[in-house]
Amino acid sequence: MEIDKSKPVMVTGANGYVASWLVKKLLDEGITVHAAVRNPNKKDKYQHLDNLAANAPGRIKYFKTDLLEEGSYAEAMEGCELVYHTASPYILNVKNPQKELIDPALKGTQNVLNQASKTPSVKRVVVTGSCAAIYTDAIDCKSAPNGTLTEEVWNTSSSLDYQPYSYSKTLAEKEAWKIADGQNQWDLVVINPSGVFGPALSMNTDSESISILKQFADGALKMGAPKVGIGLVDVRDLAEAHYLAGYTPAANGRNIISGHNTNFLEMGLALQERYGSSYPIPKSALPKWLLMIIGPIVNKALSRRFIKNNVNIEWKADNSKSKKELGVKYRPLEQTMEDSFQFLIESGLTSKK
């Protein structure tokens, strides 16, 4: 599927952590971006995008949209051959998962993709999915073929009551494929990233990775870090993967975007050389038995079930499709962690100890 770079591209949630880097790439390539946002009048939330556009050959236009409102993407999508749907809530601690996660993820996907079918110019839709639609806990890797997550694997163990974010991403992606299979106008490419780290382009970022980095900086993990098995990808590599998914004619299906199979302790150790003398970066692992006792008391998200299924368990995914078919190249873990931590410092989100 060839996409004409002279045509505008719509990006939902354009001011988000990942989407901002994607918008930067598109603008740098001279492409006109139709930024679908909740409220274009809140200039402070989009100033960083205006600054990017001012120094790039591409242009940006803002459109008021709402994930829950049918038809709200019609104007923003007009004339676009390529649509990026990145907007979906990423909140791990929620009071009402149905309202805060499921509804916007599922209905947002329906509204964007159904509008694509009503917009004659659209040829390709790239959806930002997640590895969370492939697995719930690191222990799920053990039941995957050869102990490794692939694009063929689907999340079957999350629910509204356990890991509802993973459940929302699973439902939303399945709905995306259902809608795509019901038409023949445009093709669907899904990007499935693991945990996203790296510097943000806006100080307004609400990335969950920031909360983890803060714990490395403020001493919360100075006694040790839990060896929670996760995948990690640099936000800049993820933005490049999105761009390639849109403009690589042969791009198809699901695509695991993950640079490293790692864990919290390994991530902390990657910061030791540069920041270990100034910040209480963890150097050792917290015992699993201790976490089973204190985890649920310190953090509600650290339930005994979560600890049992993720601590001291290797997370492993196959990223070969992204490298072979999309041409994605991944930064070293140390670079991603150091750049992430430096952003934390420069943005004033932590103070030197």
Automatic annotation (TrEMBL):
Domain NAD-dependent epimerase/dehydratase: 9-251
A GO molecular function held by the record: oxidoreductase activity, acting on the CH-OH group of donors, NAD or NADP as acceptor
Pfam families, per database record: Epimerase (PF01370)
Keyword Oxidoreductase: yes
Alphabetic keyword roster: Oxidoreductase
PANTHER family: NAD DEPENDENT EPIMERASE/DEHYDRATASE (PTHR10366), VPS9 DOMAIN-CONTAINING PROTEIN (PTHR10366:SF812)
Protein's name according to its UniProt entry: Nucleoside-diphosphate-sugar epimerase
